[in-house]
Description:
Elements: E1 2-4, H1 6-14, E2 20-27, E3 30-38, E4 45-50, H2 63-74, E5 81-85
Parallel strand pairs: 1-4, 2-5
Antiparallel strand pairs: 2-3, 3-4
Amino acid sequence: xxxxxxxxxxxxxxxxxxxxxxxxxxxxxxxxxxxxxxxxxxxxxxxxxxxxxxxxxxxxxxxxxxxxxxxxxxxxxxxxxxxxxxxxxxxxxxxxxxx
Length: 99
């Protein structure tokens, strides 16, 4: 995965080159998205994510805000979204034992 700035993401969406969006949960309060665009030279699919102005991965604490961002900024109204959870090493509280 490559991370790119807002301007490049805008260009990809405006040129209608994006053909897959994946929403990823890193932690309980950290969500981000990736998207796939075919490389103009090799025609091979490349996966990208959005960077912040400081060079870090752009994340959202609530996935509803992430989906609102995709709708408001790029007009995404329908499509297939995958939900991948990277939280596999987190510990989740165990349910209480039955009585």
